[in-house]
Specification:
Largest sheet: 5 strands, antiparallel
Distance between the termini: 87 Å
Structural class: alpha+beta
Amino acid sequence: MALLLLWTGDFTLRTQWTVTLFIALLWWIAAATLRARVIFPLQTLSNLLEALRENDFSIRARGARKDDPLGEVLREVNALGDTLREQRLGALEATALLRTVISEIDVAIFAFDADQRLRLVNRAAERLLGRPTEQLLTRTAAELGLASCLAVSAPRVLGISFPGGSGQWELGRTKFRQGGRPHELLVLSDVSQPLRDQEREAWHRLIRVIGHELNNSLAPIKSIAGSLDSLVARDPSPPDWREDMRRGLSVIAARTEALGRFTTAYSTLARLPHPTPRPTNLDELLQRVARLETRAVVQISPGEPIVLQADPDQLEQLFINLVRNAVDATVESGGSVQLTCERSNQHIAIHVDDDGPGLANTTNLFVPFFTTKPAGSGIGLVLSRQIAEAHGGSLMLGPREGGRGTRATVLLPRAGIREH
């Protein structure tokens, strides 16, 4: 507008050109200032964002001022670059540590993609398959002889032979995603030696228990048989030889019967059948168990009814054993037994509490045939724990909270439990 008024007005040519050059100079200065204050920072910001996109966190913007809006933006981008650099460094260090652990751990690890092609393998897996990584990657599970491991349910123990070794392998499997694609992680750990050690220890304990029980029965039988043989060989026979013979044979019969009970108890423990689950009302089952005991009061805390998918016969035997032990502990003191149920996110717990003298020694509670009762068989708690574990749960014994006595706790998994 100034130039239009200047060139259309009544001014000399010299004045017109002088003012025009002056206005052009001002325009050039303003444009240069605008470029320095706006365009250059925007270009710097663009370069910074491009570097961040390319995972280059070493570039920083200089000259960012607090009193300048664009300067504040550049300061924030610099801070973002520092944060991303620290996060990337932490991720790289964590990845390096994970790769080192995976490489050095003495467990065979395989990672397969959705097409069951091998994408990751560690050194233990290389030794197990007898080939280097270069010959294993991109091979299918069938080509590597691992298709059966991906087909069975996990976790479980399998007997498998590989080029690098054979034995009992504990199989673990889980799913993960990498790059948005599903993968499956297969873990194989050799448990042959631990299983052999456990089996050897179990045989040693069994032999000690059986040997102890046999000695307890055979030693008096042998002694009494020798005495009776001497009695029969005496001539003339003593006047009370019939009574001595009767007492000796009675002792032999009693010890033989005890030995028979022992073998029957062992066969019962060794032949526990697999549970046959069906809908079982837990409250009704506990009520039946409580009615079977007449020596003491068995109280059941009220609660919402629960229907379990379980074997009612085996569960009933489990709680009969626990309630009988609790009543045995309270009959002398005239106490009572309390049954309570508690729910958690993963389990339902059934507690059997008594106010007896408590447990003096918990070391041998679950050792087969160990008992502190004169007429006990020593298999009740062992059988109860086997039943609980066969249902995916557990059995624990410990001191009662808030007073004397014992608490037996049966934990059953919440999965498969239907609540009314």
